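Hello Y.,

Per our agreement to keep a running log of every chain we model this quarter, I'm adding this entry. I've kept the format consistent with earlier entries: sequence first, then predicted structure.
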Amino acid sequence: MKIFIKNKNYSLSEIIDICDKHGLTTVDCLKDENMISVEEWDDKEKCLGGECLFEFMRIKEDLFKLTWLETKK
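Predicted structure for the entry above:
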């Protein structure tokens, strides 16, 4: 899934907007790990899909850098 560009900086609102357009959701890990992860949302089960697809590290107050993405073989 190539909806984010690695090493690009994103604001939180940009991440949320992109996630909304692609049926994904953010998981806030800012307090413990200073990062946000993105997972699939399962509408049928009304829960997260359980698989992290993207990770963004906070580099400033409202600025995040994509540092990891799931690459499926």
